[in-house]
Amino acid sequence: MTTANAYPVTQTIRTIGILGGGQLGMMLAEAAMPLGYQCVFLEDSADCPASLYGRVFHSDQLEDFIAAADVFTLEFENTPTVTVEQLTNLSKSGSKQGMFPPLIALDIAQDRLKEKQMFNSLDIATVPFMAVNSEAELQQACHELGLPIVLKTSRGGYDGKGQFVIRQDSDIKSAWQDLKDAVTGEGSLTPTPAPLIAEGFINFSRELSIIAARAQNGQVRCYDLVENHHHHGILAKTQAPAVGTSHLFQQATDAITKIMNHLGYVGVMALELFVTKDARGNDALLANEIAPRVHNSGHWSIEGAVTSQFENHIRAVVNLPLGDTDNVHPAIMLNVLGQYPDISAVLNIDGAHYHSYHKAERDDRKIAHITLMPNDVADLEPALAKLIAVLPNKVGLDKKSTTADNQQKALDIPTSTEAEKSLVNTKVTEVMEVTKIITGDSQKDNMTNAQAKVNKAKK
């Protein structure tokens, strides 16, 4: 039923068109509704999670989707750029009110080589890397970067496909034969011709990410750094804030702000980071990749921040002021993979917040997430242990992991022997000679700050 005066007369945007209808689209729609906006979705799966919150248009119905919305955004960075370009042109003509994020952000995010070149052009450090267009250039990369290296397609590739670990000279020919078709756009890896990228191995101790929102007027607001743990290359756990990282916060915020300003970005973006050591032995950050959308490592913000990442993305897209990004309570978010837990057992844990994505069960599929926010921060780890115990898929969190294991998980590289694990763990690259590290000022510990906010709220 339509209400005659459902919108203020000054509100020119009523419906947001979202490219994609997965759980991110669903949670964006959940955030849009209290602000007075409806959402429609372009998605080929009619029973997708977002279908609970608005009409779903098949890709064959693109024109109908366009007609149904006033402004556009997306939930998936691998959205075809031709579609985004079409929506951008409609906005330029004045017939629609915007496509956010901009096309250039997708073009960069879909190309690993362009992405790392952008980072370095902005004085943001990365692992050492080289473009590879031939077997001779691959030989040169192995010589200059030192073995082992990871050879990857710069575009496409998924679930460990499109990459090859070169551990010794005898692997070079096999690696080139496996991936060379990507350079010409032949084969199944990617239809777009693009150079391969060779990346040097680095020692890192932790995986972090920072999420920020940028408004149409250029205002940027950043969330706390969070720590991420992966299982078979899939995010398993996020802790917010990341304990003991306040001295890295300024470096991270400077980096993501530079990127967003450089791209003229509007909306929420995530920047994934590795913690390593600089030449003086101090903690420093290396940029891994951007996600030009709301991000899995920001799901904790629904309960744990003053304004969630989803609401801030909607605010940016419809040109409303951004909300406060402060962490109001330390939290741990777990992804539910493959099989649903007993919801009663989950909600019997104090501080547990359950979010189902209404998906069918399937191995390693993200079907829900759970955020833990017990009233007393001291109860966070005990609550986590209780939660892991009731999860059908423990996502590897019931086991201890080593630095070498973390290195493998981050790169999605299978390691066959303990000797190879040792090699990964002890390989020290000359990162500081080829990249510039941005240093950050020392601040009070994030967790302490968050606990102080909780205590203040209690009063």
UniProtKB/TrEMBL annotation:
Keywords: ATP-binding, Ligase, Lyase, Nucleotide-binding, Purine biosynthesis. It comes from Psychrobacter aquaticus CMS 56. One of its GO terms (molecular function) is ATP binding. One of its GO terms (biological process) is 'de novo' IMP biosynthetic process. Catalyzes the ATP-dependent conversion of 5-aminoimidazole ribonucleotide (AIR) and HCO(3)- to N5-carboxyaminoimidazole ribonucleotide (N5-CAIR). Pfam families: ATP-grasp, PurK_C, RS_preATP-grasp-like. Pathway: Purine metabolism; IMP biosynthesis via de novo pathway; 5-amino-1-(5-phospho-D-ribosyl)imidazole-4-carboxylate from 5-amino-1-(5-phospho-D-ribosyl)imidazole (N5-CAIR route): step 1/2. This is N5-carboxyaminoimidazole ribonucleotide synthase. Gene3D superfamilies: 3.40.50.20, ATP-grasp fold, A domain, ATP-grasp fold, B domain. It catalyses: 5-amino-1-(5-phospho-beta-D-ribosyl)imidazole + hydrogencarbonate + ATP = 5-carboxyamino-1-(5-phospho-D-ribosyl)imidazole + ADP + phosphate + 2 H(+). One of its GO terms (cellular component) is cytosol. Its EC number is 6.3.4.18. The keyword Nucleotide-binding applies. Belongs to the PurK/PurT family. The gene is purK. SUPFAM superfamilies: Glutathione synthetase ATP-binding domain-like, PreATP-grasp domain, Rudiment single hybrid motif. Residues 116-318 form the ATP-grasp domain. ATP binds at residues 112, 152, 157-163, 199-202, 207, 230, 288-289. Homodimer.
